[in-house]
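Example record used in the benchmark description.
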Amino acid sequence: MLESMRPIGISSSSYRSKFQNGKLGVLGKRDFRRFYVGYCASLLGTAMSSVAIAFAVLGAGGTPSGLGVVFAANIVPMIAFTLGGGALADRLGRRPVMLAADAVRCAAQGVLAVTLYLGHPRLWLFVAAALAVGTGNAFFQPALAGLPVQLAPGDRLGDANALLAAVQPAAQVAGPAVAGMLIAATGPATVVAVDAASYAISGVALALVRFPRVGQVRSRSLLADLADGWAEFRSRAWLWIDTVQFALFNLLTWGPYLVLGPVLARDYLGGASAWGAILASYGAGAILGGLLALGRRPRRPLVIATLATLGFPLPPLALALQLPAVDVAGGALLAGLGSALGSALWATVTQQQVPVQALSRVAAFNMVGAFAFGPVAFAAAGPVAAALGPRAVLGFGAAWAAFGTLVVLAVPSVRRVTWLASGQAGETPATAPANASFSPSATQE
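Model output (structure tokens):
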């Protein structure tokens, strides 16, 4: 418990007062703290298991193509089921949907771990486990998007999102390192078992959280719920223009960067160690960005969030120009910082502006739109690079990312949206027009 970590000589009430009034004050709220601990455990387990599964597949005689099938099996359910997951989270409540997702993911990884302990499983079992985990993710993530509004005080909403933005890259930095040591000492099965246990910890934490009541979604069908969510989504120009921006960004910039970055790192930077350092720099930057977002309440949050995305073109541009590894890593650090800072601000604005009853559905439309082209980007990057050259592809992607940022900044509603007072967040009735209860400075286009 956090209370047990106070310095000797400081009274419990004094420590609690200082802690709750600081930038980490949202962790002083018991329900958010319980959820956050479980969520951190889950993310760490996921980051560890991705390394273990890769080595387990290859160790069982699998090929790189087979490993690609396993990774794709984790992504496809996210595209197929996220919209339904968002609708169910708003209809049934976020906790039961998230608990079910944790149970499915825990069972899938538990079965895989047992099979690994018993021998070498066939590729289809890895694919089945990946499909199950991906399906759980498709239901968990939209529900998570609306959770901070229910667990964090309105004046701490930005801090809650900042902490959520910082923990994922932290897990991605720490997880592979811990996994590597465990795999060397015990084998991949232990790491996959730890991942299964992490989902169990997440589920227990959620079960202990007390959720405030929110208005229930009442409609004729799940399709009607989705139609209402779509109406909320498309009524906000700043929201759908961001989705379009990141759909094209993932297709033209980030997907090719993730595929071609290791190729150029091998060709002129020295190989895997250089690429690992670049990825670690991105993670470190994201941690810094999440911490930088703590306590920040900019008057024009979407302007700041959009400007933060100017870091994204830097690492692919540095690779296209064949700059030294330290320059690529520096660009990756700035990209990670901007990613976490922008994500925290954008998430807070969405939670402030969208009715709490519709948050999961709106988040689902955003997720599906932003990541729909991901598989296409991964599949097309190699052939296009073979025709045009990897440096040309990455240079174009960097230019597109910068251009996309300027386009988003030109949207009037992006520049007009302001940070709402705590009492105004998430209060728009689900049946009201999109801008019915917004302040004049935050009207939508």
